[in-house]
Amino acid sequence: MKTNVILWLVCFVALVPMSCQKNTEDDSEDDMEENEPEIMFDDKVLIGFWSGLSYQIGYPPIALDLNISKLEINGKAGEVSTPNSCASELIYLNKNGQSFNFKEDLLPGQSTNCIGGKSYLIIKSKDTLNYYWTGDDNASNTANALLVRK
Q: For residues 112 and 118, is the Cβ–Cβ distance under 8 A?
């Protein structure tokens, strides 16, 4: 009888803490999911007025304004302009992963120094975008900007 009681106590002492112990392995994964929200933005975040400085090799930084009013495949999405310089109509082409792709067609009456091209935007936050442009004249003719919502 004494041996049975000791055996029972040993089992009880050994098993009770294990059953009451928090499972840190499973809980840590749950905590990570709760504490690290996935960053996702609706495409409509792009709609609005944006501005920033455009950087192009061989030129000083220049102000860039971007206006996006809608996103319809192969439709006019808005305009992009460098004040007192060049302006283009944005034609929305597609979305590829996080990249929103556009064709930039020069608006009538632009300087002969202006070049159309292709651009893509990547949403950084609800109030910031990365803008990348490649000229139609040469694949190495590129520019980029960090744009902020106006």
A: no
Q: What is the pLDDT of residues 89-107, one digit of tens each?
A: 999 999 998 899 999 999 9
Average pLDDT, the chain: 82
Residues 101 and 128 in one domain: yes
First to last CA, the chain: 83
- Residues of the chain with confidence (pLDDT) below 70: 1-41
pTM exceeding 0.85: no
Range of the domain at 133: 44-149
The pLDDT value recorded for residue 17 is 47
Q: Is the separation of the CB atoms in 53 and 61 below 8 Å?
A: yes
- For residue 91, which amino acid is it? I
- Are 101 and 133 part of one and the same domain? yes
From residue 22, how far is each of 17, 18, 19, 25, 115 by CA, in Å?
A: 10, 9, 8, 9, 64
Q: Can you tell me the distance from the alpha carbon of 147 to that of 81, in angstroms, rounded to the nearest whole number?
A: 13
Query: How buried is 131 (Cβ within 10 angstroms: 0-12 exposed, 13-18 middle, 19+ buried)?
Result: buried
